[in-house]
Amino acid sequence: MASACQLLLPVVTPRTTVALHVETTGLHPDTAAVVEVGAAWWDHGELCQWSSLTNPGTLYLTGPEADRAMALAHLERGTILRAPSSFTVAASLGAQLRRVARGGALELLAGHVAFARGFLARDPWGGPLCLGGLDVVWRGAVSRAVAAHNRTLPPDCTPVRNLSLEAVCEALLVPRTDTHRAAAEAMAVLRCWRALDELEL
Fold it and tell me: Which domains does the chain have, with CATH numbers?
C-alpha cells in the first residue's frame, strides 16, 4: 500500500537558486538592451558572484534614455563599446549557470521578474547559448515581499501594488551597495530572498 501512495506524490525537482540582475539602456526590451548582467548564488554557505559588461551595439547606446540609464549605473559609452559582445557574454553566463546547476534545475531570482525576464528572453540571452535548454523557474523577490507585506495589513488598508528593490532591502535590513551595478544588485536580491526565508514570509 505504501508504494501505491508514493506513486501519487508529485516529483519535486531540487533546484539551485541563482539571483540574476540586468542593467539596461532603458525600460523596454523592444527599444533597449542589456549592458551589464550579474549573478549571485550560495555555494556551501559562501556568497559567490559573476558579472560582465556587454556591448549590445551602438544602436542601443544613443539617445536620452540610454544616457540616463548609463548615468545611473555610472557607466560610460566608451566603456560599454569596449566590452565583449552580447553573444560572448550570453555564452559565458550560460556556461556559468550550467556549472552552478551541476546538471540540475535552476531557481532564478530577480528583483522584478517581468523586467529581467523580458530582457533575458530575447536573443542571445534566451537562446541555446545562455538560458535555452535549462530547466528554469523564475521567482521575484519584490513580489514576494509585497505579498508578505499585504498579508499583514488590516482589512481596511489598501494593499501595496509594488515596491522598489531599495525599499525591500531597507525593510529587511539588507545592505545595498554599488547600486545599479549588476553583481551588487544580484547579491542584494539573493540576501533579500534569504531574509524572507528566515522570516518564513
Answer: 14-198 (3.30.420.10)
Sorted by sequence, the CB contacts under 8 Å of residue 96 that are 6+ apart come out as 39, 50
pLDDT in tens, the chain (201 residues): 454 545 455 555 578 999 999 999 999 999 999 999 999 999 988 999 999 999 999 999 999 999 999 999 999 999 999 999 999 999 999 999 999 999 899 999 999 999 999 999 999 999 998 998 899 999 999 999 999 988 888 888 888 888 899 999 999 999 988 889 999 999 999 999 999 999 888
Q: Model's pTM, two decimal places?
A: 0.89
